[in-house]
Amino acid sequence: MAANPQxxxxxxxxxxxxxxxxxxxxxxxxxxxxxxxxxxHDKDRVFKQLGTFALRKKIEDAVLRGEMLAPIVLQxxxxxxxxxxxxxxxYNFWDDPVKxxxxxxxxxxxxxxxxxxxxxxxxxxxxxxxxxLAETDAVNYGLIKQAYNASVDVSKFLDQYEMSxxxxxxxxxxxxxxxxxxxxxxIYSEIWAERLLSMYVKWAEKQGHKTRVLEKCSxxxxxxxxxxxxxxxxxxxxxxIGERGVHRMMSSLEKTSNHEASxxxxxxxxxxLETVYDFPLDDKDLIISFLxxxxxxxPVVPVVHIQHALTGICVQSSGERNKFANKMxxxxxxxxxxxxxxxxxxxxxxxxxxxxxxxxxWSQDTRRxxxxxxxxxxxxxxxxQLPDLxxxxxxxxxxxxxxxxxxxxxxEKF
Length: 414
What we know:
This protein is an alpha+beta fold. It has 9 helices and 11 strands. The protein has 2 domains: 42-166, Methane Monooxygenase Hydroxylase, Chain G, domain 1 (Up-down Bundle); 175-413, Alpha-Beta Plaits (2-Layer Sandwich), CATH 3.30.70.1660. It has an 8-stranded mixed sheet. It comes from Spinacia oleracea. This is Peptide chain release factor PrfB3, chloroplastic.
């Protein structure tokens, strides 16, 4: 028995018709060279030949970029490493043990970068050699693909290295806890929050990192009311801080009651993986509550909720094994948020925090995802606009992240 056809999600009849025309056009373009006597293997061979042109161009671009940057960067890093070693020889480690540990950790990190750069130089030569071998056989798609994979590794590392030089904020180097909360009372915001969760998880996977999805509060609509994602890798906070604020999925640009927006707020909190920023919190300033999750699907779990009475900042945790662990997790998140607020306000004493100056995530518009009359992703912080909505929702948000990081870096100079 044939399955019932599913309606096209959030698309109009003219858009569906336009897609059909595009499909027909693409079919004619690809199929006109083939005759009935051609075998399927002949078609596969031609398709692969067409694909190798694009791959070769990407390989050449990555190799050229790597040859220009990698040797220079490697030389600079090696010189800086020697300078740091000489500086440490003259330093008395007993004077300031905390600073000494930071210096040793930084030295070890830079040594890893140097080793990676040496591997990168090897990968560049490997990609060039494999590409040259592949060119002796016009249809050797396997070798071209192997060279392309090596060039992707080159580009990915150079991108990350350049970003690490831009991300100079006090907590940029740390991991991140990203909290998504559905807005409004409708089911569409809950479904939209679920879509954002997928986008961030896919982004991390594309960078070669895993995530921990915690405290997922599901709803009957098939979406989520809230969720926390932990990114346990360096510079995650620096990458993702620009995502903080309200994300709107809009079915249309027309401001009518028939085209309401689906809302979700994203908050980003530093996740300290190695360095511990500890400072005392007075128990009398903490309002601790033990609640139950609002899960409509699955088990109801206990939640530790903490409010800081002096600032009104609230945090919670429910993803750990027991009440004590959840309390400690919530306290760490509260301390992280307080540290960020103090850094933003340029103060070192918690008692000097101006509560009126604390920016709430719901008061900060970050991005609009528009479906009609044309698909568009509009970043409201940087002004960047991307036409490929589906690609962004599949986790390809590096352009948006880079734009915000560059803007923040430029503003910090002045």
